[in-house]
């Protein structure tokens, strides 16, 4: 098809507003996916994505559509909805001229609706408002349309009402894409410049690259050149590793190179780090192989070897956020059959040392000694929470408990408010999102961006079990919170660590000073003896249960510490 008949668009929405369902319907209606291959949520093709109902990596699909007897080529780029992955959203938007703004007509504008719309406006995209889920009895499209107009200032006079689930309004959407989204500009005479916006490794076909041709033309058999990595390849094949076809790089022709590459993208920086250790030391090499394989498709995943006297050999890994961390961990266990211990995630601190150096520290146990450091800076985020007005109080309380600085409150409609705070990223890692949801009965939503580093009065809290300092349990806390965290953490550990044959002291320390102390009493020797009364199956059951529990434990000194204990610090009340 000629350029004037091409449309590049993406779908933006708050999570669960129906983006993937709508994408599936569009593919189905245009016959892009043969009926028998149609699985629910075709674009979410990683098993985990389908199970969790979220889109993790962006995906692209090309559709053919005939409008007024002319053939069109519609390129859909799906975007993830979770805050951890917002850098993937900006990438896909930069490859489009238009976007469908999908808003759940029974809910209304949410935090990520706003954030994504602003990204789309920044990219000068034509936005088509789509009110989804009008089949629901609770749908109020008129109210939500008013909300979009008031809050975003977007003209909704020709918003489309649809039900992605029931297939209502789908043709209207396809027609609007053709009629309202402009075609890409014709730059076919210029030297080729194509921007890579995604790539992945396919074990059978090598590296598959998604790119947007910005200037010039490209055809099968062309010999191409990757401007940043300097690698040459043919379009359908011969790209060996994903590193050669980096997201953000520009493809040009080998024989007619463009002068300058395209601006590209900011690299996704990992925000939280944790240690990953195999429960069984023999699995270290397998863990490294698995991480290398995952990294081929996930440039945001970072890792380097970490050794700890308590945990043995493992890796310090960097992730975009907690969801990203959970997903990687789950894939390692599920797809690579590994049994892992994960230590509590930490943000990256900047430590200004007495000698003038600044060191980055993402591992609390490696924090320079108090004598060596002058000050510590921590990453700070700006967080926007959208909530029905009934929950303003509880959410303000939450933000304050987490060292938040109040910035602004706006009523975006009569009944809904936006609360803006600045707070330390470390206070958000953990259960902040869960708390936001539970304190607002599920009605509030949030969005955050990292805004920089700020000096703060931080200190290291050590945990000693049975007189031994357990490095992976060390955590960095604000001095004002050290005592309460110490108390809550020792209590929690006492609950989580199984009793052993001897009494075990559990202590929280600031330097050499013990600030909280608990003790785990010894197990009674006759636990098994009880079963000797003849019931052999009961005894076997008990032993089996103990063995299963063992799988996810690490022996530290003489004490078995279960996985949950390493995460305890995240969920203190
Ligand atoms: P995404 O997170 O934006 O991709 O949302 P999904 O497409 O995964 O949809 C979230 C949930 O809403 C799923 O349970 C869908 O079945 C449901 N859903 C999507 N569209 C509709 C619709 O038009 N009507 C109704 N009733 N449910 C819908
Ligand atoms: Mg989805």
UniProtKB/TrEMBL annotation:
The keyword Membrane applies. It is an enzyme of class 3 (hydrolase). Belongs to the GTP-binding elongation factor family. LepA subfamily. GTP binds at residues 13-20, 78-82, 132-135. It is found in: Mitochondrion inner membrane. Residues 4-185 form the Tr-type G domain. This is Translation factor GUF1 homolog, mitochondrial. GO terms for molecular function: GTP binding; GTPase activity; ribosome binding. Promotes mitochondrial protein synthesis. May act as a fidelity factor of the translation reaction, by catalyzing a one-codon backward translocation of tRNAs on improperly translocated ribosomes. Binds to mitochondrial ribosomes in a GTP-dependent manner. Pfam families: EFG_C, GTP_EFTU, LepA_C. InterPro entries: EF-4, EFG_III/V, EFG_V-like, G_TR_CS, LepA_C_sf, LepA_CTD, LepA_IV, P-loop_NTPase. PANTHER family: TRANSLATION FACTOR GUF1 HOMOLOG, CHLOROPLASTIC, TRANSLATION FACTOR GUF1-RELATED. PROSITE patterns: G_TR_1 (PS00301), G_TR_2 (PS51722). It catalyses: GTP + H2O = GDP + phosphate + H(+). Keywords: GTP-binding, Hydrolase, Membrane, Mitochondrion, Mitochondrion inner membrane, Nucleotide-binding, Protein biosynthesis. It comes from Trifolium subterraneum (Subterranean clover). GO terms for cellular component: mitochondrial inner membrane; mitochondrial matrix. The keyword rRNA processing does not apply. It is a peripheral membrane protein. One of its GO terms (biological process) is positive regulation of translation. Its EC number is 3.6.5.n1.
């Amino acid at each position: 098809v000629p350029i004037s008949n091409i449309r590049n668009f993406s779908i933006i929405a708050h999570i669960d507003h129906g983006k993937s369902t709508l994408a599936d319907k569009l593919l189905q209606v245009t016959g892009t996916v043969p009926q028998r291959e149609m699985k629910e949520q075709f674009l979410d093709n990683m098993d985990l994505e389908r199970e969790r109902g979220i889109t993790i990596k962006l995906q692209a699909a090309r559709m053919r559509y005939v409008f007024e007897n002319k053939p069109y080529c519609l390129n859909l780029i799906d975007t993830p909805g979770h805050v951890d992955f917002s850098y993937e959203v900006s990438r896909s938007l930069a490859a489009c001229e238009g976007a469908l703004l999908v808003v759940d007509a029974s809910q209304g504008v949410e935090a990520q609706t706003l954030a994504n719309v602003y990204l789309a406006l920044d990219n000068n995209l034509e936005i088509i408002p789509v009110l989804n889920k009008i089949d629901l009895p609770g749908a109020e499209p008129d109210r939500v349309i008013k909300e979009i107009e008031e809050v975003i200032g977007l003209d909704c006079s020709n918003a489309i009402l649809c039900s992605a689930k029931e297939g209502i309004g789908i043709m209207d959407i396809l027609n609007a894409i053709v009629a309202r989204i402009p075609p890409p500009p014709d730059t076919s005479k210029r030297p080729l410049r194509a921007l890579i916006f995604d790539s992945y490794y396919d074990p059978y076909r090598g590296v598959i690259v998604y790119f947007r041709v910005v200037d010039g033309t490209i055809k099968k058999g062309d010999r191409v050149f990757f401007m940043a990595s300097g690698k040459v390849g043919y379009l359908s094949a011969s790209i060996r590793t994903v590193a050669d076809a980096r997201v953000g790089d520009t493809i040009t022709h080998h024989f007619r190179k463009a002068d300058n590459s395209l601006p590209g993208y900011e690299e996704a920086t990992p925000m939280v780090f944790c240690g990953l250790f195999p429960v069984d030391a023999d699995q270290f090499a397998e863990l490294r192989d698995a991480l290398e394989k995952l990294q081929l498709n996930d440039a945001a995943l970072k890792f380097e070897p970490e050794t700890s006297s308590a945990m043995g050999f493992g890796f310090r890994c960097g992730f975009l956020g907690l969801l990203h961390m959970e997903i990687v961990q789950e894939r390692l266990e599920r797809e690579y059959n590994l049994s892992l211990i994960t230590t509590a995630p930490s943000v990256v601190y900047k430590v200004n040392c007495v000698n003038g150096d600044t060191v980055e520290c993402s591992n609390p146990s490696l924090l320079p000694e108090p004598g060596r450091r002058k000050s510590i800076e921590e990453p700070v985020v700006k967080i926007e929470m959208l909530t029905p007005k009934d929950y303003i109080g509880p959410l303000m309380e939450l933000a304050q408990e987490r060292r938040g600085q109040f910035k602004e409150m706006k009523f975006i409609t009569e009944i809904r408010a936006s609360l803006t705070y600045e707070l330390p990223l470390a206070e958000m890692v953990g259960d902040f999102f869960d708390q936001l949801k539970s304190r607002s009965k599920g009605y509030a939503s949030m969005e955050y961006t990292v805004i920089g580093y700020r000096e703060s009065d931080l200190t290291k809290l050590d945990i000693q079990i049975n007189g031994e300092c357990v490095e992976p349990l060390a955590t960095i806390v604000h001095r004002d919170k050290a005592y309460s965290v110490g108390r809550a953490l020792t209590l929690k550990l006492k609950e989580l660590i199984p009793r052993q044959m001897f009494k075990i002291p559990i202590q929280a320390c600031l330097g050499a000073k013990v600030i909280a102390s608990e003790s785990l009493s010894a197990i009674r020797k006759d636990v098994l003896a009880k079963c000797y009364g003849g019931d052999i199956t009961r005894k076997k059951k008990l032993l089996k249960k103990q063995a299963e529990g063992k799988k996810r434990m690490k022996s530290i000194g003489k004490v078995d510490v279960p996985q949950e204990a390493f995460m305890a610090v995240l969920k203190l009340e």
